[in-house]
Write the structure tokens for this entry.
Amino acid sequence: MIKNSLSISIFSLLFLFTLSCASTEQLDSTAERQTTESELPVSEVERPLPYPIDVPNAYLQAVENGTRSTDGKPGEGYWQNYSSYSISAEIDPEIHTLYGESSVEYTNNSPDDLEVIVVEIAQNLHKEGTPKKETTEITGGSQLQRVNANGQDLESISMFQRWTQNASGYVLDGTRLYIFPDEQLASGGKMNFEFEWSFEIPQQGASGRMGRNRDNLYFIAYWYPKIAVYDDVYGWMDDSFLGNAEFYHGFADYELSVTMPKEWLIMGTGEFLNPEETLSQRTLERYNQAGNSDDTITITDFDELSDATIQNGSESLTWKFSSSKVRDITFSATLESRWDGTRTPVGDLDGDGEIDYSRINTFFRELAPLWSEQAEYAQHSISFLSDYTNFPYPWPHMTSVEGAGIIGGGMEFPMMTIIGDYNNAGAVRLYGVTVHELAHMWFPMILSTNERRYTWIDEGYTSFHTNEANKDYYGDRFDNNDIFGGYLQIAGTDLEGEMMRWSDFHYPGPAYGVASYPKPASVLAALRGVLGNELFLEAHHELIERWQYKHPYPWDIFNTFEDVAGKDLSWFWRAWYYETWTLDQAVTDVLSENNSYTIVIEDIGNVPMPVLLEITLANGEKIDQRIDVDHWLQGHRTKKLTIDSNSQVVRVEIDPENHFPDVNPSNNIWERGN
């Protein structure tokens, strides 16, 4: 999620990396002679050394249980629980109230018998007295009219009653609902739940991730009782939703129906099942045309909205959607938004050798003129990311909804995103936020990570993918400095927090944002610089292949990269993810004697990294050299590199292709004076 357009500027999220593997090829006219210092005795170590990373006992126990593995693959015993939802919603626009009913079949694939079922009621963020990280509109939260387990209506009880009387019922605690059925849910068993609820729709709900605006737009998310994740590492995920860190959801199947007055156009997560029952003949024909068109089709324009839906004498229409193996659902309702549609290629989804396509929908109001190009932005985003991740976009549509007044930046959900109008930020920024939100379809919608604790995974990978897409769309207009800048502005200061710190536990200020967006994206660029582009992509693709539709934790990511690369990268994880150390490599001197040149490199910062050197001779020849990270891991701060050449050394530059976020690039270049 990009919460507002200002944050895009602060965190430099919309720019790309220009990285490639540094060459180590030696020119024929030169010969390299390097010193080979041994590892320093402990008493002489000149720098902090990365020590082994911290791995929680809960994760180690999962490895012991065979659900995870030390090589980063899901274990043979990996499992996850699963839900099937049938949800109906109706909105009364006169009072901005949503009424919902749902039935859920929950399957316990875990080896544990469950005496409690945890459900998230995210709308209770808007209830007075619920813990919050920031000022929040108070609307009363969700009003639960019915909670039923296996056919039995449950009553609200206190936790004291539960523990002293073993009472069945439910306990509502902020955004958490604890259900205690009469009988526990046995391993391998199923349990059915039913809920009825309602809530007043906030204007900027869930910290600007859903809501209503101008009486002509609803974007509904964080809205239904959602069974929490019970996983093989920590069991129930019952961290409160505080309005800041986003969600950790399990995969589920959904049948969704939305009823509203007939003037409203609805789009939601899933296959749109009944266009013939909801769209007017003209709108239906254009909708079908758009699904087979590479060009953007206006399905219904601003002056056509009065008869965009079917006229069957009814005052309301019910719109139906179906989805499988998604981790959430949302829907939009628009009254005065133009609907554009097209399609985009995603690759071969079914292995038949033919290119498959996904629909692109955009809904925007007249006060958002930049959105006339939004469908093209979404086309490129989905196609590029399908190719770059080596994982074709798997769903029938991707819909972008302009939501100025609800959100300034953007927020993602499976197949749906809400984005501000970007009138003041401009078209380049609108493309950038579009690809950012659509990149979330892979992280965390396909690799379902725990955003509540490790926001850096989904936002970091997404920011990295955003930069790659920007480069592809705009060419050389962007480079690594644009993404590095958001991190380097506070790198090494007291304002910075460790990336591995749980998301809601960062100190107030920029720490959370930097540790979630630009720093992890910068670190992925640095990892690519260490491994080289080819090996990095191999590991990246393998990570997605292994953990698609599963729940990877940080150590699964670390282990996968080490497994594919065949390298111990623990020094990298410790230095970048667990610490707030910085990288500062410097060329401090070049000494010459006859035809021998000694280049002195100093590693001033505490992050050990390879040194990628480009040495320029007076005759114009360039020599690429690499100082391996092992030298710094032996405890040294200084490295001398000796070059023999008949041509004078006139320039030495560290990291000329800008792979690494160095806090002081001014000392990366040495040039011989006249």
Summary: The CA atoms of residues 212 and 218 lie 4 Å apart. The longest strand covers residues 82-92.
